[in-house]
């Protein structure tokens, strides 16, 4: 099945919600209620959600509900997600190997007045350690750069060493601590900031890291 798949990143749409919630519950099992993705996509104009997908051409795609399209110049801005109709209700999903399109990860970014804030990053458990979290971080930084936001921020558990190593690789620095930030176990969170993603120095390093990621993990199609 791995040899038959095609890999891509694109803006999240409403009919992705059941799979994204599936990933969220794997990654954050104690979080309740799940993120209100329908409201985020339809009403929050500050929000940009991006998914990584694995397509299996041997499985026929299910018909898309009318109005589930998305648009936008993804190469530069990943698109402005349209207000579209849909449902966030859970529905039965076929096994992952029987899906024409398997969502493997998601990242959410809010474009605030003076920063791009990463609000969530999650990768399907079966697809971790394949470079997907790094790919999604690259996408988030590109969105910030396209929106001319020099500052990118996020929170990270103090115990999450792999994530901290990834963020350090991309120039994020510890700028503060939020005590007892996580409601499940009251763990502290580091406040991490990349403060100059529009600078020539950052862009040159970022270009190198993107090329390194592609050499190691292969090319992902970037779709509008």
Short summary:
With 224 residues, the protein is of the alpha+beta class. The chain has helices at 17-27, 37-43, 132-146, 161-169, 200-217, and strands at residues 6-11, 47-55, 101-111, 116-123, 152-157, 173-178, 189-194, 221-222.
Question: Can you walk me through this structure?
Answer:
With 224 residues, the protein is an alpha+beta fold. It has a domain at 2-148: Aminopeptidase, CATH 3.40.630. The chain is built from five helices and eight strands, in the order E-H-H-E-E-E-H-E-H-E-E-H-E. The protein has helices spanning 17-27, 37-43, 132-146, 161-169, 200-217; strands spanning 6-11, 47-55, 101-111, 116-123, 152-157, 173-178, 189-194, 221-222. A hairpin with a 4-residue loop joins strand 3 and strand 4. The model is unreliable at 65-90 (pLDDT under 50).
Largest sheet: 8 strands, mixed
- Percent strand equals 15-25%
How many DSSP E strands? 8
CATH level 3 topology of the domain at 2-148 = Aminopeptidase
CATH architecture annotation name of the domain at 2-148: 3-Layer(aba) Sandwich
Helix content: 25-40%
Total of helices = 5
| Name of the CATH class of the domain at 2-148 | Alpha Beta
**Sheet with most strands: strand arrangement:** 6-7-5-4-3-2-1-8
Shape: globular
- Spans where pLDDT lies below 50 across 5 or more residues: 65-90
Return the average pLDDT rounded to an integer: 87
* Helix/sheet category: alpha+beta
Write the layout of secondary structure elements.
Elements: E1 6-11, H1 17-27, H2 37-43, E2 47-55, E3 101-111, E4 116-123, H3 132-146, E5 152-157, H4 161-169, E6 173-178, E7 189-194, H5 200-217, E8 221-222
């Amino acid at each position: 099945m791995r040899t038959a798949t095609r890999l891509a990143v694109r803006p999240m749409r409403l009919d992705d919600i059941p799979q994204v919630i599936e990933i969220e519950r794997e990654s954050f099992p104690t979080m309740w209620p799940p993120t209100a993705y329908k409201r985020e996509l339809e009403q929050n104009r500050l929000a940009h959600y991006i998914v990584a997908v694995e397509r299996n051409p041997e499985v026929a795609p299910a018909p898309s509900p009318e109005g589930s399209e998305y648009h936008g110049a993804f190469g530069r801005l990943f698109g402005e997600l349209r207000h579209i109709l849909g449902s966030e209700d859970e529905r039965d999903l076929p096994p992952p190997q029987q899906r024409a399109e398997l969502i493997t990860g998601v990242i959410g970014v809010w474009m605030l007045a003076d920063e791009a804030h990463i609000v969530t990053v999650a990768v399907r458990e079966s697809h971790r350690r394949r470079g997907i979290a790094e790919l999604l971080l690259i996408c988030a930084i590109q969105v910030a750069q396209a929106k001319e936001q020099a500052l990118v921020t996020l929170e990270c558990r103090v115990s999450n060493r792999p994530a901290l190593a990834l963020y350090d690789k991309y120039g994020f620095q510890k700028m503060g601590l939020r005590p007892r930030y996580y409601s499940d176990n009251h763990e502290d969170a580091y406040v991490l900031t990349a403060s100059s993603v529009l600078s020539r120095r950052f862009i040159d390093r970022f270009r190198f890291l993107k090329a390194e990621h592609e050499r190691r993990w292969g090319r992902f199609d970037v779709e509008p």
